[in-house]
Amino acid sequence: ITSGPEASTTATSAVFTFSAAELDPTFECRLDGVVFAECESPMQYTGLTDGPHTFEVTASDAEGNVDPTPASWSWTVDQTPPQTEITEKPVDPTTERGASLSFTGTDDRTPGPELGYECRRDSQDFQVLLEPGALRRARPRLPHLRGPGRGPGR
Predict the structure, then answer these.
(1) Is the pTM of this model over 0.85?
(2) Which one, 53, 56, 117, 153, has the greatest CB density within 10 A?
(3) CB 85 within 8 A of CB 105
(4) Which phi-psi region, left, alpha or beta, contains residue 24 (left: φ > 0; alpha: ψ -120 to 50)?
(5) What span, in angstroms and rounded, lies between the C-alpha atoms of 50 and 150?
(6) Whether pLDDT at 27 is above 70
(7) CA–CA distance from 21 to each of 29, 63, 73 (Å)?
């Protein structure tokens, strides 16, 4: 298999290219353990559901010799966005000169400690938070929180 989707993707379709060292090979493919069926490169699948997937391909030569160990490619489709919950915030409006904000996040595929967050104040650009979980600001304006994202710092 020479190409396929990234290990984790939001795409619900996948295209695979593959080849064999034999002259005039024939190929059989399968997705997620379904029965092998004749196929050609490139092979495309659409309408993929959330979750892990495995594509396998095997080659046969002109004499009918079949590769006993199919090549495989595994990846995950993840279209479920992570969720952020603000767990502690100042009253609104506040007369306090400083404010603290605490938050947490969940995701169906990424462990909590690996989630990343971004925040912005007013209409400024979002900035990566290096210490997720709490914000302390000297100004009374409440920042906007975005995340969690997948992977460190995002």
Answers:
(1) no
(2) 117
(3) yes
(4) left
(5) 16
(6) yes
(7) 17, 14, 19
Q: What is the pLDDT of residues 45-84, one digit of tens each?
A: 999 999 999 999 999 999 989 999 999 999 999 998 888 8
Residues comprising the chain, all counted: 154
CB of 75 closer than 8 Å to CB of 8: yes
Contact 70, 109 (CB under 8 A): no
* Six token digits for residue 29: 């493919």
Q: 25-54 burial string, b = 16+ CB within 10 Å, else e? A: bbbbbbeeeeeeeebebebebeebeeeebe
39 is written with which tokens? 């196929």
What distance in Å separates the CA atoms of residue 114 and residue 151, rounded to the nearest whole number? 5
